[in-house]
Structure formats: structure tokens, C-alpha cells
Design a protein that fits this description.
- With 63 residues, the chain is an all-alpha fold.
- The chain has one domain.
Length: 63
């Protein structure tokens, strides 16, 4: 088991969860409120998702 791949997968799942939460905030936002949380969760989710995917892709299998 490669620790970098596990950490990359965890970051990817965390990013997906954060992006889904940002989408739920966007759907439930009414009249211009709570856009601060939407931007924060969206940016963090995108950052975690991209970092996790790149970490999984760049890690070589050493068996």
C-alpha cells in the first residue's frame, strides 16, 4: 500500500464532498445570502479535488 495514493484518494473524496456541499449551498441560497460560504467551500473543494487527483496520478506503483 502506498501512503501517497491513500492520502490522494482521501483528498479527492474530501474535495468531492466539499464541492457537493457548495452546490447544496448554491441551490438553497435565497436573495444573495450565504455566498461567502459558497465561495469558501467551492474553492477549498476544488483545491482538494485537484490536489488529490494529481497526487494519485503522479505516484508510481512500486510493488
Amino acid at each position: 500500500m502506498n501512503l501517497k495514493r491513500i492520502f490522494g484518494a482521501a483528498l479527492t473524496v474530501l474535495g468531492i464532498g466539499s464541492l457537493i456541499y457548495a452546490a447544496v449551498l448554491y441551490v438553497n441560497a435565497s436573495g444573495g445570502e450565504n455566498y461567502k460560504g459558497l465561495v469558501i467551500y467551492g474553492m477549498l473543494g476544488l483545491l482538494f479535488f485537484i490536489a488529490g487527483i494529481s497526487l494519485v496520478r503522479m505516484t508510481k506503483d512500486e510493488a
